[in-house]
Design goal:
The protein is mainly beta and about 325 residues long. It has five helices and 23 strands.
Length: about 325
C-alpha cells in the first residue's frame, strides 16, 4: 500500500508538471485592429497596414483581402497597392475577428487617352467630334446634346460658363464642359434625355453590368467635392461623390467613390456600373418619360469650377 501511494503521488506530480508546461501555449486572439481606419493613395503607390492583435503577444496568422482588386490589392503582409481610381475596403481577419480600412485611390494623372476608345457598346454623353468619330461604329446610343431630344440644363442658373480652351481629355484642341459655381448657395445641372429609344437601349447595362463602366475625364485646381448621378427607370437612381470627403446634399451624406489630384491636369476616373446597380440603379426597355441620364452638383462655394470631358458608359 505504501508503494502504491508513492506511485500515485509521482503520477500526480508528473500530471501537474505537464499541465504547467501546457499553460505556456500561445494565447488566443481576442481582438484585432488596423493601425489606420482610412488610407489614401495614388495609382501605383503602396502603403503597408499593420494589424494590432489583442493580447499583444498573440501570434496568430492574419489573412488580408480587398473588396475590389480592380481598385486596390493587398498582399499577405498588409501592403496595399493602388490599381485604379476608386474606393475599396481592405480587411484583416484572424479566426472570426475582422478589422477594416477604407481605402481611396486617386488618379495619378497618367493615362493613355486612346485606351478608353478601344472598348465596345458606347453611350457617349460628353465627347468631342474627333474622338467620337473613332468609336462611331461602336455607339449604341448617342446622348450628347442636340437641342432636340437631348439637352444639358443648368438648374436655376446656378452655374455660369467657364473657359474650355487648350487640349481636352483626348488631347484634341476641342471644347469640353466647363462650369463655374455661382453665388446662389448651391449648384446643379443635368443631361435631360427625352429620346425614349435611346433610353431603352441602356437596358442591357444593368441587366448584366459586368464589364460596363462609367468613364469620366475631370480636372480642377480647387478641392471641391462634386456629386454625380444617373436617373434610371421609374424612381431608381444612383449617385456618388468625387473628392476627399462626403457631400452633404440637404442632409443626405453622399460618399466618395474616387478622388483625383487637383493639379489642373486631366485625370481619368472609371466607376463600375455594378457599383451603381448595387445602389438600385435600373435601366429598362420600357421608358415612358424623360430622364436625367447624367447629373451633377458642386455645392455652393462661388467660384468653384467643374471641368468635365469624355463622359460615357461603355464596355471594356
Amino acid at each position: 500500500m505504501k508503494t502504491n501511494k508513492i506511485l500515485i503521488l509521482f503520477a500526480t506530480a508528473v500530471f501537474v508538471f505537464f499541465t504547467a508546461c501546457n499553460s505556456n501555449d500561445e494565447p488566443t486572439v481576442t481582438g484585432i485592429e488596423l493601425n489606420k481606419p482610412t488610407l489614401s493613395l495614388k495609382v501605383n503607390e503602396t502603403a503597408t497596414l499593420l494589424a494590432i492583435l489583442t493580447p499583444s503577444d498573440a501570434k496568430e496568422t492574419v489573412t488580408w483581402s480587398s473588396s475590389d482588386q480592380a481598385i486596390a490589392t493587398v498582399d499577405n503582409t498588409g501592403k496595399v497597392t493602388g490599381i485604379s481610381a476608386g474606393t475599396a475596403k481592405i480587411t484583416a481577419t484572424v479566426n472570426s475577428l475582422t478589422s477594416v480600412c477604407d481605402v481611396t485611390i486617386e488618379s495619378d494623372g497618367s493615362y493613355n487617352p486612346e485606351t478608353s476608345l478601344n472598348g465596345s457598346n458606347y453611350y457617349p454623353i460628353i465627347m468631342d467630334g474627333v474622338s467620337f468619330a473613332k468609336i462611331q461604329d461602336k455607339v449604341v446610343a448617342d446622348f450628347r446634346p442636340d437641342d432636340e431630344t437631348k439637352f444639358l440644363y443648368i438648374w436655376e442658373e446656378t452655374y455660369s460658363a467657364g473657359t474650355s480652351t487648350g487640349p481636352n481629355f483626348y488631347r484634341e484642341v476641342e471644347g469640353w464642359v466647363s462650369l463655374v459655381v455661382g453665388s446662389v448657395g448651391w449648384s446643379g445641372a443635368g443631361f435631360s434625355i427625352s429620346d425614349l429609344a435611346a433610353l431603352n437601349s441602356l437596358a442591357p447595362v444593368t441587366n448584366n453590368p459586368d464589364g460596363y463602366y462609367l468613364h469620366m475625364g475631370i480636372k480642377s485646381k480647387d478641392n471641391t467635392t462634386h456629386v454625380f448621378g444617373i436617373d434610371g427607370f421609374g424612381d431608381s437612381k444612383a449617385s456618388f461623390a468625387i473628392g476627399a470627403s462626403s457631400f452633404d446634399d440637404n442632409g443626405t451624406m453622399i460618399q466618395p467613390l474616387a478622388d483625383f489630384e487637383r493639379d489642373g491636369e486631366w485625370h481619368e476616373i472609371e466607376i463600375p456600373m455594378s457599383k451603381l446597380k448595387e445602389q438600385g440603379l435600373l435601366f429598362s426597355a420600357e421608358n415612358t418619360e424623360p430622364k436625367n441620364i447624367f447629373w451633377f452638383l458642386s455645392g455652393g462655394v462661388a467660384g468653384s469650377s467643374l471641368e468635365l470631358d469624355a463622359v460615357f458608359i461603355y464596355k471594356k
